[in-house]
Description:
The complex is a heterodimer. Chain A is mainly α. Chain A has helices at 9-12, 17-22, 24-28, 34-46, 48-66, 74-90. Chain A is built from six helices and no strands. In chain A, helix 4 (34-46) packs across helix 5. The longest helix of chain A has 19 residues, at 48-66. Chain A starts with 8 loop residues before the first helix and ends with a helix.
Amino acid sequence: VKIRRPRSRRAAHDVTCREAVALVTAYLDGALGLVDHHKVQQHLGECPHCTEHLRQIRATIEIAGRVDPEDLDPGARSDLIALYRRWRSDGDLC
Amino acid sequence: VSRTAAAAEICADPEPGGSDRGSGAAWACSEEAELVERLRAGDEGAFAELVERFHPAMVRMALSRVRSRAVAEEVAQEAWIGLLRGIHAFEGRSTLRSWLFRIVLNRAISTGVHERKHLAVADEELEHRDGRFGRDGWWVTPPTHWADEVLDRITAPSLAARVHQVIAELPPGQQAVVTLRDVEGLSSAEVCEILDISEGNQRVLLHRARTRIRTALEREVLL
């Protein structure tokens, strides 16, 4: 696979692909300093592979957010409501 | 809580300088004070709402620390008792949900089946040993494009199921962080507070968890 590299690797930005991938979580959290943030952003603008990688991480986050909070087991619900009622009537439990 | 809002936030361009807003922050602000008041007033409906919303996540959280589901259920139940006991003294210095998750974690740790005092950050999967990159730091094996395919199949139960499974198999620290951040949508500040870890440590754990989930998704999609 021939990889198209950004033309002026050192001049345009100081971030390699490995670094861009390593910083992706901090980047998405907005936790990088202004300078680093812009370096990563610039790298992403030039590198289709890292851009795809970022999109995959975003897709991963998106799917994780859809891992459905499994429906509450009706048994657990009624146990907890019973516990609440005992709490209300006795003022304390256990 | 709206998962669509969470998705929109995740897809927005990040801004530098610590824009630390959990995707569920809106929930915390608008509904929490009201729920606390209702709980204090003895409103069973408020308790039921909280149970509906958080109990499964609390059990999952406990499962990162204890071995069996039955024990995790017990831990979560004890945490609810802790909430009822403490609600009148709750001062709102943290959000209700971080307080709740913190109670779960403390109970789970003291139950202590495989307790670890601190979340270990194992020295693994570091990018410098990652075969995808050459010595110069550029891709040797660039990623195959599949993000769009996943987003197209986002509602496919098989993908969500696979992600669920991968999360359940993660080491405890990674599991706790990714569950709270990406499944529950808590902010990094809340997660640090709940797990009592530094922001940097939290981010390392999150990064590793997401990296593993991404790899599993890739296998699933390219299969």
